[in-house]
Design a protein that fits this description.
Layout: H1 3-24, H2 30-43, H3 51-74, E1 79-81, H4 92-99, E2 129-130, H5 149-166, H6 174-180, H7 192-202, H8 222-225, E3 234-237, H9 243-252, E4 255-259, E5 268-273, E6 283-292, E7 299-304, E8 316-320, E9 336-340
Parallel strand pairs: 5-8
Antiparallel strand pairs: 1-5, 2-6, 3-9, 4-6, 4-9, 6-7, 7-8
The structure holds 2-acetamido-2-deoxy-beta-D-glucopyranose (3 copies).
Residues 76-78 line the site of one 2-acetamido-2-deoxy-beta-D-glucopyranose (NAG).
Keywords: Disulfide bond, Glycoprotein, Hydrolase, Protease, Signal, Thiol protease
Domain Cathepsin propeptide inhibitor: 37-95
Domain Peptidase C1A papain C-terminal: 125-340
C-alpha cells in the first residue's frame, strides 16, 4: 500500500468518524441546545454556582433533550414526553432519589389496619370518575427535593374522603407527617398505611396552613400537631393485584397507591402512559379517577402526583388501566389503600 493510499484511507476514516458523530448529534446542535438550556433555566428560576456546574447541567439537559426527542420521533405512542418541566437538568438517578420515596420493603408490614375491603360487593360502579369534578381534589402540590411522596399520597386521599363525607374541601399538612410520624422516615421515605395509622393514633391531622410544608425534615411541632382539621377512624387495603376492586374503591373515594417509577416518568407530558416503568416500587401517588381516552378508547387511571404543575398534564398523569398484568401497569394495583372516616 502506497503512502497516498494510506492518506486517502485516513481522510475517509476521519470524515466517516465525523459524519457518524454529527449524525448522533443532529437532533440538536450545540448552540440551539445552549439557548434552550438558558431559556429553560430562566423559566424555572434555576441558577448555577459556577461555570463548571453550569456546563455539567448543560450536558445533562442536552442528553435529556435527545432522549425526549428520540422517544417522540418514534411516534406511534399514546403518550408524549417533553423537556419543558422542572426536572430537565437532572439525571435519572438524581430525579429518582429526590422526588420519589415510597419504600414498601424497608419497613415491616403493618398489621393494624382493618383488613376487610368494604367495597367488595359494590355493583353499581360507573364507567368514569373524576373526583376533581366533585371538588374533592386540591390544587396540585409539590414535594420538591424531599422523598415524602408517601405523605402527599395519604394527605390527598384524606382531603378527598373528608370532602365527600363532610362537604368541606380542606388542605392538610404533609409536614406534620414528615416531622411527627416516627415510624416513617420523612424525606428519606415511608409508607402510606403507616401514615394512616399515625393519623388515627394522633386523633387527626392539622391543616396545611397551621403546619405548612417546608420540603425538608424538621422537629415535630407538637403544638401544631394537636390542631385537628381532619380525622380518620382507620384505613383499609384494596385487594392486592386486582384492578377491578381498585376501580370499585376509586369509584367511592380517592385512593393512595404505590407505583414503580422509571426513566420515562421524568419527562411524561401528556396522553395515556403505557410504561417504561421502574424495576421496583418506589413512588406513591393518589388515584382520583379513571376513564377512557377520547381518541382510542384506551382505559386509564387518573393519577394525581406531587411534582408541581410543570410535570405531566398540569401535574396529573393518565396511566394505562387493565394493561394485562395482575399487578397493573407499574404495579399500580399492588399497594393500594384508602382512609375511612
Ligand atoms: C360480600 O358478599 C358476601 C356474600 O354475600 C358476604 O359474605 C360478604 O360479607 C360481603 N362483603 C362485604 C364487605 O360486605
Ligand atoms: C347507580 O348509580 C346511578 C348513578 O350514580 C344512580 O342514579 C342509581 O340510582 C344507582 N343504582 C343503584 C341500584 O344503586
Ligand atoms: C400504541 C399504538 O398506536 N400502536 C400501534 C403502532 O403501530 C402498529 C402497526 O401500525 C399498530 O398495530 C399499533 O396498534
Amino acid at each position: 500500500m502506497g503512502f497516498t493510499t494510506l492518506v486517502v484511507i485516513a481522510i475517509f476514516m476521519v470524515l466517516g468518524n465525523w459524519a457518524s458523530q454529527a449524525s448522533s448529534r443532529t437532533l440538536h446542535d450545540e448552540v440551539t441546545v445552549k439557548n434552550m438550556h438558558e431559556q429553560w433555566a430562566q423559566k424555572y428560576g434555576r441558577t448555577y454556582a459556577d461555570d463548571a456546574e453550569k456546563e455539567k447541567r448543560f450536558k445533562i439537559f442536552r442528553d435529556n433533550a435527545d432522549f425526549v426527542e428520540k422517544f417522540n420521533n418514534k411516534g406511534n405512542r399514546t403518550y408524549k414526553l417533553g423537556i419543558d418541566n422542572v426536572f430537565a437538568d437532572l439525571t435519572s438517578q438524581e430525579f429518582l432519589t429526590y422526588y420519589t420515596g415510597f419504600r414498601p420493603t424497608h419497613f415491616p408490614k403493618s398489621s393494624a389496619g382493618t383488613k376487610s375491603f368494604r367495597y367488595a360487593n359494590l355493583t353499581n360502579v360507573s364507567d368514569t370518575v373524576d373526583w376533581r369534578e366533585q371538588g374533592a381534589v386540591n390544587e396540585i402540590k409539590n414535594q420538591r427535593e424531599c422523598g415524602c411522596c408517601w405523605a402527599f399520597s395519604v394527605v390527598a386521599a384524606i382531603e378527598g374522603i373528608t370532602k365527600i363525607k363532610t362537604g368541606k374541601l380542606v388542605s392538610l399538612s404533609e409536614q406534620q407527617l414528615v416531622d411527627c410520624d416516627k415510624k416513617n422516615e420523612g424525606c428519606n421515605g415511608g409508607m402510606m398505611d403507616t401514615a394512616f395509622e399515625y393519623i388515627k393514633e394522633n386523633g387527626g391531622i392539622s391543616s396545611e396552613e397551621d403546619y405548612p410544608y417546608q420540603g425538608r425534615d424538621g422537629d415535630c411541632d407538637s403544638q401544631k400537631a394537636r390542631e385537628k382539621t381532619a380525622t380518620i377512624s382507620g384505613y383499609e387495603d384494596v385487594t392486592q393485584n386486582n384492578e377491578e376492586d381498585l376501580r370499585k374503591a376509586v369509584n367511592q373515594q380517592p385512593v393512595s397507591v404505590g407505583i414503580a417509577v422509571g426513566d420515562e416518568f421524568q419527562f411524561y407530558e401528556s396522553g395515556v402512559f403505557t410504561g417504561g416503568c421502574g424495576e421496583r416500587m418506589n413512588h406513591a401517588v393518589t388515584l382520583i379517577g379513571y376513564g377512557y381516552s377520547d381518541e382510542d378508547g384506551m382505559k386509564y387511571w387518573l393519577v394525581r402526583n406531587s411534582w408541581g404543575t410543570s410535570w405531566g398534564e398540569s401535574g396529573y398523569m393518565k396511566l394505562q388501566r387493565e394493561a394485562g398484568q395482575p399487578e397493573g401497569l407499574c404495579g399500580i394495583a399492588s399497594a393500594a389503600s384508602y382512609p375511612i372516616i
